[in-house]
Amino acid sequence: MPEPVIALREVKKNYQDVNILDIARLELPAGIYWLQGENGAGKTTCMKVMAGLIPFKGEILLQDNVSSRQHPVQFRRLINYAEAEPFYPSFLTGRDLLELYLRTKGGDPEQIRAISEKLGVHVFVNNPVSSYSSGMLKKLSLLLAFTGNPALILLDEPLITIDTRALAVLYDLIREYNAKGVSFIITSHQPLDAEEVTITGTLKVAHKNITLN
Ligand SMILES: Nc1ncnc2c1ncn2[C@@H]1O[C@H](COP(=O)(O)OP(=O)(O)OP(=O)(O)O)[C@@H](O)[C@H]1O
């Protein structure tokens, strides 16, 4: 089996006393994965755990040797996450956030400028996020997910709220970045368009565990 892009070992996540995830072992080779599960099954929790954004028990390895425990900074640089319902401090502009991400995550500013124009973010990037519609917020969060040099990008419900033009751009980006070696895990209650992306496998979250098909 090729080197996994992400490997989970004995990962457990509780909210207060309630156990939400209990994953003994999961290894994913590079690819594009559709993460499925019923409402409340734990998909968003799983993504936040994978991205190192919330505390959990156990360990996650990226690219076989970057550990969530031993190399937390390097770990977070290799993984990007776009929230289902992004929320940013209202007084910031899209440009403030973009500059912060480019400063902390790095990556090619020209490439991000090009994506911004394709998604139409450049039109409103100088306005405070408090003035954005839900679709504009979503486009900004998707743009931020392509900053840096990630090995894995987690997209939580990326298909909802964006217009059809932005959706076509997003599918192009997923294909383009995947061809460059970037893996994706995507949650969606709607099927991903099989003509736009070839899914490597489906991941099912159920009974606190994740299975790969
Ligand atoms: N901050 C929190 N504190 C306590 N419980 C939480 C918190 N966030 C999520 N939960 C609980 O964890 C479980 C999993 O929630 P999660 O948001 O991960 O599900 P999901 O699969 O993404 O659902 P959906 O498809 O509805 O978005 C749910 O029972 C939810 O109530």
TrEMBL record:
Annotated Pfam families: ABC_tran
Gene3D superfamilies: P-loop containing nucleotide triphosphate hydrolases
Taxonomic classification: Bacteria, Pseudomonadati, Bacteroidota, Chitinophagia, Chitinophagales
Domain ABC transporter: 6-210
GO molecular function terms noted in the UniProt entry: ATP binding; ATP hydrolysis activity
PANTHER family according to UniProt: ABC TRANSPORTER ATP-BINDING PROTEIN ALBC-RELATED
Organism in which the protein naturally occurs: Chitinophaga arvensicola
Highest taxon above the source species: Bacteria
Keywords: ATP-binding, Nucleotide-binding, Transport
Protein name, per record: ABC-2 type transport system ATP-binding protein
